[in-house]
């Protein structure tokens, strides 16, 4: 059966558009193949070079006590969480701090899917929709992510486009059904089931939604 179409009347009534990051406006591979390894490498360097520094200990204070007995134990724990993509709040908070160094130094730049930036700017400038982000990454990490976005040969700050940021601390678990009102297909995302396709509108590009107004 064909996917459910987007309900135009319902879309016109929506004032707030809540977007995820990974697999929705930016690729899963950027997060898993660039951001995660960067954070792990930075943590490894900090843990082994400055384990006893107060700044390092402050960064890992929220980790379970048994995982921060020494540098190797901590690194092994973070490697396991990362490999299993376990979205522990304390890990997400740490990653946000580690990514900040990469972004401010220019070693990290955020790539968005090609359709995303024009649509976000259109919604924001036309005041058609208010934009918000809900991601498992910490709010601090989200702000870093949107501060250094590739736009051709330029780097742009997109934070002003978003009115609100939510993470799993401020909004609750992402596996709650109430957290999702759209299902988006993006390269690298898991294939949707036929049941999903019949039950939800399937959006492959933000341009499909932007065309509604």
Automatic annotation (TrEMBL):
Claim: Amino-acid biosynthesis is one of the keywords in the record: yes
Coiled-coil ranges from the UniProt annotation: none
Keywords assigned: Amino-acid biosynthesis, Hydrolase, Methionine biosynthesis
Record-level GO BP terms: L-methionine salvage from methylthioadenosine
An annotated Gene Ontology molecular function: magnesium ion binding
Keyword Protein biosynthesis: no
Protein name in the entry: Acireductone synthase-like protein
Organism: Sporormia fimetaria CBS 119925
Lineage of producing organism: Eukaryota, Fungi, Dikarya, Ascomycota, Pezizomycotina
